[in-house]
Backbone:
C-alpha cells in the first residue's frame, strides 16, 4: 500500500537508475511497516522547470514522499526515515559531489478518505 514518489530536478545525474533505489526502499518498508512487497508503488517525477535559490544551474534537488496508512508510531517512522535518507544520500552521491544538492524526505499518513480496490 505504500506510495513512494521521487521528485528531482532534471540536472540530477542518477535519474535513469531509480529502480535499484526503489527495490531497496520496498524491501525496507516490507520489513519495517510491515506491508507486502507487492503493495509498494513507486513513481518518478523529473522536473524540467524549477528554480532553486539564485537559479544557478548547479543547484539541484531530490525530494521523496512516502505515503503510508496511519497508525504507525513516530519512532517507527523516524527509523524508516533515517534509513531512506541514507539510501538517498548513497544513491545520489555523484550528484551530491558535482552539484549543490538538497535531499529531503517526507513520510506522511494517508487520510482516512484513502480508498483502494
Residues:
Amino acid at each position: 500500500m505504500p506510495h513512494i514518489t521521487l521528485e528531482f530536478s532534471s540536472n540530477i545525474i542518477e535519474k535513469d537508475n531509480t529502480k535499484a533505489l526503489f527495490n531497496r526502499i520496498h524491501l525496507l518498508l516490507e520489513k519495517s511497516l510491515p506491508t507486502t512487497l507487492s503493495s509498494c508503488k513507486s513513481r518518478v517525477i523529473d522536473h524540467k522547470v524549477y528554480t532553486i535559490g539564485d537559479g544557478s544551474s548547479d543547484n539541484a534537488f531530490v525530494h521523496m514522499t512516502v505515503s503510508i496508512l496511519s497508525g504507525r508510531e513516530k519512532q517507527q517512522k523516524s527509523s524508516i526515515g533515517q534509513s531512506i535518507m541514507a539510501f538517498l544520500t548513497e544513491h545520489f552521491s555523484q550528484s551530491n559531489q558535482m552539484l549543490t544538492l538538497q535531499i529531503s524526505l517526507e513520510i506522511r499518513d494517508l487520510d482516512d478518505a484513502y480508498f483502494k480496490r
In short: Helices lie at 19-32, 74-91, 93-98. The chain has three helices and four strands. The beta strands are 3-9, 41-47, 59-68, 100-109.
